[in-house]
Amino acid sequence: MSSAALQKLNALLVGNSRPFGTFTFGVVPDNDYVPDLPSRLLRQGKFDRTLSVMIGHNQDEGSMFIQNTVVTSDSSYVAYLKSLIMPLADDIGALDRVTQVLYPPIYDGSKGYRNQVERNNLTVADAIFVCNARAMHQADDVPQTYAYVFSGPPALHGDDLVYTFYDSGPASGINTTVAEIMQRYITQFAETGDPNAPDLPQFPAARPTATVQNLGSDFVGPSQDEGGMQQLEERCQFWQDAPYLTKYR
Predict the structure, then answer these.
(1) Is-contact 10 4, C-beta < 8 A?
(2) H or E stretch including 222?
(3) DSSP-based helix, strand, coil % in the chain, nearest 5
(4) If you average pLDDT over residues 214-219, what whole number do you get?
């Protein structure tokens, strides 16, 4: 098979993966090369402790990976989660914990969302992006770590890339000052293991206060993931432990 044919086959297979927002292929623990989920290994301290880490995610990671025109009610939300994370369908206790405790249908803003769409987006963002990033930068005994959240509007998944690879001069749709600060942080960290420099906004370490550096059009500085939502720690512990995967270990 030619490379071109293989690329086309891959695009067709991944592009038509169901449910929407999944990609068919992913890392699976095999008790050998991948002994367990990375999040669990981080909690167990089974990682290279000589590496320094700077990790980032975007403010709205979830909305590109869920069909909000389809998931419009509590029942369709439950059905979507069962199709997205299939082991949840076999673990009613874990499914109920996600849908009734961690992300319950309460839309007064106290849970971080005010409608079904925001609930959908937050659930997907936490499960796939935010909590994986948090597991890495909050792992015990890891060397100094740094974390940032990109919030330049609309801050969708991938929106930070035009900032990461900004070249020079005027650019449509981006804040070039933030782009240059972001690039300085990245190159400074790559060179020294510390993103800070005398002429840059102070970038504090992620631990021990779970601080992330906000990179936004109106503010560059320390903040808390999801605005410091008190539920985030409990939510991320659930996704990191992945209790619904016990039978698959």
Answers:
(1) no
(2) strand 220-224
(3) 45, 10, 45
(4) 94
